[in-house]
């Protein structure tokens, strides 16, 4: 009986192919939007969370920020700075020593100084390359890995040796497919020997909270001592035909906390230590990746709820469309219903018949919507840099919802059909 009912329902729907397709369109778009939006949203959120995790959940990051001219003029000693055109801001080497000596909860403190110089190897060059002077602990604190060679060593720090470690992107730009280990690279006017190359890191996008929007795939790393002695701390800024000078000793200090539960406490103490010697606090920023991670997790839940609500509205509209068409179908097939009732069909049979047709419409639309929802994220990922991640539970869930919508929104039309008076139905033209 059920097979015959299903067969009859499909036959009835095929009599009006275009109408059936347009009716399913709402369900197709609803199901497809649920899967595609959740997939694209999940991919973007995972990428963002991974960037934050890369900064280290047990780390506290203190960064130098260049104050605006108005802010800098309010600082103590601004008159001297204005006359000499030297702007001093940000972290100092003394700040690093104070943090090490004051905070008992930190295991490591990694300083970073950023300079921009032309990097050149033979006929290949990077005009404004990011050169980071740092310590051997940097690679572990930032969770980076070596592709070949080695990273900066303690001996390099002591001797101030001119050695450099290239990120994957920098190595490709400067040496293409050649092995850069042991070869020379000119940084500014100084010659450095390449001793290591890092593995590619993620998509290569800038990392939130990094030094100047850190891009781990584009940097060049040298010993901090070599950076200080070879490049100095004074930078010349050319603007509107005039020369200005800036002095920034350290661009960033990353503190690794011994216990993740003490991260917030350590960040608060670090702020107090820094604020003591930077009263205005307009040239220092303290970031806590753990707090950013927790905030991102909360935003992820809210985002999923918003996306689910939008997609749910689309499915609701699709369900209303099914109900509307089924009501019109009941009117068109009034005489058919009267004949079936006269031949012995019960109200239950009529109800089941129209429910089956409604569910066939919604379930077919659900299957097509799943195909549409899987295709869209794959196309987005293929043609752009946006990552997507299709969660396995979205396909069965959305299909079940589409079937449920067909059943729910098909009840009223089916009931209306079953309640028709057989005699009046037979008289219907």
Brief sketch in words of this structure:
With 429 residues, the chain is of the alpha+beta class.
SSE layout and pairings?
Blueprint lengths: L1 H13 L2 H39 L3 E6 L4 H6 L3 H7 L1 E3 L4 H10 L3 E16 L2 E11 L3 H4 L4 E4 L4 H6 L3 E4 L1 H8 L8 E4 L2 E9 L21 E4 H8 L2 E6 L2 E6 L4 E6 L5 H15 L6 E4 L1 H44 L1 H9 L4 H37 L10 H25 L3 H6 L2
Parallel strand pairs: 2-11, 4-9, 6-8
Antiparallel strand pairs: 1-12, 1-13, 3-4, 3-7, 3-12, 5-8, 6-9, 7-8, 10-11
Helix content: 55-70%
Biggest sheet, open or closed, and with what strands and sense?
6 strands, mixed, barrel
Query: Which strand order does the major sheet show?
Result: 3-4-9-6-8-7
**Total individual domains:** 2
Structure, described:
- With 429 residues, this protein is α+β, with helices and mostly antiparallel strands.
- It has 2 domains: 2-49 and 295-427, no CATH class; 66-282, no CATH class.
- Helix content is 55%, strand content 19%.
- The protein is built from 15 helices and 13 strands.
- The strands form 2 sheets. Strands 3-4-9-6-8-7 form a 6-stranded mixed β-barrel.
- A hairpin with a 2-residue loop joins strand 3 (106-121) and strand 4 (124-134).
- Helix 2 packs across helix 13 (347-383).
- It is elongated.
- The protein starts with a helix and ends with a helix.
- Mean pLDDT is 82; it is low at 72-84 and 203-209.
